[in-house]
Amino acid sequence: MTSPVPSQPILDHCLDAGFAASGIVVAGSSRHEPSLNAWLESGQHGEMGWLERNVDVRLDPRQLVPDARSVIVVADRYDGSPDVPLPPRSGRIARYARGRDYHTHMKKRLHQVSDRLQSMYPGETFRACVDTAPILEREVAAGAGLGGIGKHTLLIEPSVGSWLLLGEIVTTLAIEPTGSGEQIDPCGSCTRCIDACPTDAITPWSVDATRCVSYLTIEHRSAIDPSFHSGMGEWIFGCDICQEVCPHNQPTNLTASTPTHEAYAARTSGRDESGASFDVGAVLDWTEEDRREAFTTSSMKRAKLDMIRRNAVIVAGNYLQAAEDEDLRNRLIEIAGDETEPALVRDAAIEITCRS
Ligand code: SF4
Ligand code: SF4
Questions:
Q1: Half-sphere exposure (CA, 13 Å, Cβ side) for 63?
Q2: Interval 217-273: pLDDT, tens
């Protein structure tokens, strides 16, 4: 067996490609098999049925690339700055989804690194992955020395926090690993994310997706249980609360620096100037064309029209709990009485108008 090549030139290629951090871990089987299986068996993945598939691959990247010896992990930072005060009736968007679709942005540069390495090591295999392959990416990132996994289950890089997007290259090339193999606990006795989670989705180092606002607004394609409506607050797509409260994301001296993730603020279809939210009244009136226009080049296109309008109905209902808005109330009443509305949207409106 050949000895591993030095990691530094490879890390330099990653930096050249604009990644904020990178590391190398030996490709091997996960130590999280029991917890992943228990999480899946208890149904905490909700409607994300794809997580049940390829579990063996997820647990060992060597199933993805036969004879893989290393995983190169890269991270992009996105802007985690606190939001400026948003206009009334704002439906907030999780920060990672405010820029252009990160899959496209990262994939292009990851392929550049991969192609460069391929030309240097023509006999080896390099497979770039950004959310497209079943990899336990936070675990491999932690194994590569990029940080530790917090109680909210996200990767925390101690000097820059958790506003990170991850990508990997699985390769047959043996590379010197960069991690120590030690698990870092970035949390200690802190429980801020657990205490702040509006739907009690977090138990230490585990998130029940079926309770998480991020899952409910982005992945859950059926009705959202009314018991979670108030917990959704202003969030129309995703939720950042557990990251906002994390001490590793404050102060924001580093998160205020230029993000590598390009900001994007479309001022069409009810989006506010900062790009952080949509006017929920506008979203209630969206057609498929409006949705397409608003989500062009965005990772938000994952949310179908009925889903984003369902979310807007719920957020509008939360606004009406706090302040009267006759136009918004009348629009919800109209949707509730309109038999031509999709059931997903109408049922949420009926629930809210009957309640208030
Ligand atoms: S994203 Fe929001 S709902 Fe989900 S675990 Fe974090 S704080 Fe809770
Ligand atoms: S808020 Fe506290 S407990 Fe949660 S991930 Fe951050 S440090 Fe860990």
A1: 13
A2: 999 999 999 999 999 999 999 999 999 999 999 865 444 443 444 444 444 456 776
CA nearest neighbour of 229 among 70, 14, 220:
220
Ligand nearest to the CA of 188: 2
Angle between helices 305-322 and 326-337 (to 10 degrees): 130
Distance CA 16, CA 225 (A): 47
* CA angle in degrees (0–180, nearest 5) for 151-152-154: 105
> Would you say 175 and 72 are in contact if contact means Cβ atoms under 8 Å apart?
yes
Substitution candidate for ligand 1 out of 48, 194, 200, 214 with most atoms within 8 A of CB: 214
pTM of the model: 0.91
Give strand pairing partners of 175.
5
**Ligand 2 pocket by C-beta < 6 Å: which residues?**
150-152, 186-187, 190-193, 245-248
Known catalytic residue: 131? Answer: yes
